[in-house]
């Protein structure tokens, strides 16, 4: 597996993974627009030329919000999400960010367990944040020294 910055060639596969993994996916145009956003850092995990996972983020004034993370269902339980998050934190730290925040569905027990195992803590709750279906989001965050 290789983790690299998302480029134009990755966009169709990332958009397809969005559709596969999320009830309210980003469009291919929305994913592509992140390539030109100076606030964004998107990473992909590739195996044999295929995107098996990705993570996207946006940073403003040293604080980063994770937009999305997904791993193809056939590639789960192999440490790909953990590797993506670890590399994201490494690259964010090098760019001067000191915190990563995210929202996660309250019912997404496997994701919550992953985040907590990587040092994320609950910072708050967003009522009815998600739609399709409507659900609360936990706000999680992780800080580090730069």
Can you put this structure into words, describing what you see?
This protein is 28% helix and 40% strand. By secondary structure, it is α+β, with helices and mostly antiparallel strands. It has one domain (2-143): Aminopeptidase. The longest helix is centred in the middle third of the chain and has 15 residues, at 80-94. The protein is globular.
Q: How many domains, in number, for the residues?
A: 1
| CATH uppermost class | Alpha Beta
Radius of gyration: 14 Å
DSSP helical segment count: 4
Strand content: 35-45%
Flag low-confidence runs: none
- Give the averaged pLDDT, no decimals: 96
Quaternary arrangement of the chains shown?
Answer: single chain
What structural category do the secondary elements indicate? alpha+beta
Walk me through the topology.
Blueprint: E1 2-5, H1 11-21, H2 28-33, E2 40-47, E3 50-60, E4 63-71, H3 80-94, E5 99-105, H4 109-117, E6 121-130, E7 135-143
Parallel strand pairs: 4-5
Antiparallel strand pairs: 1-2, 2-3, 3-4, 5-7, 6-7
What are the main properties of this structure?
single chain, 146 residues, alpha+beta, Aminopeptidase, seven-stranded mixed sheet, 4 helices, 28% helix, 40% strand, globular
